[in-house]
Design goal:
single chain, 89 residues, mainly alpha, globular, YfhJ family protein, WVELL
């Protein structure tokens, strides 16, 4: 799974130069978890990491350049992203 996250993080960094590596990685992990959780709650059969990767990749391609603005409209993620900003790497 780490390979999927790394590849998606690099894609997001290419789409959005307002994000640090840690912020982009956090976004990828949040999107990944949200998709899998929502899919499971809907009672859907697990389709594997490849399916999740395709969906998250599509979201990044469609909305990746705007994700840095998202916390202003959805403070649910603000705590995760604030933590990612404070990590020095």
């Amino acid at each position: 799974m780490n390979d999927y996250h790394e590849k998606l993080t690099k894609l997001l960094l290419n789409k959005n130069d307002h994000l640090s590596y840690n912020e982009a990685r956090t976004w990828v992990e949040l999107l990944w978890d949200d998709f899998e959780t929502t899919f499971a709650r809907a009672g859907q059969e697990y389709m594997g990491s490849e399916m999740t990767e395709r969906v998250v990749k599509q979201w990044i391609e469609n909305y990746g350049d705007k994700l840095h603005d998202f916390t202003t409209t959805n403070p649910k993620y603000e705590i995760y992203l604030a933590h990612a900003k404070n990590i020095l790497h």
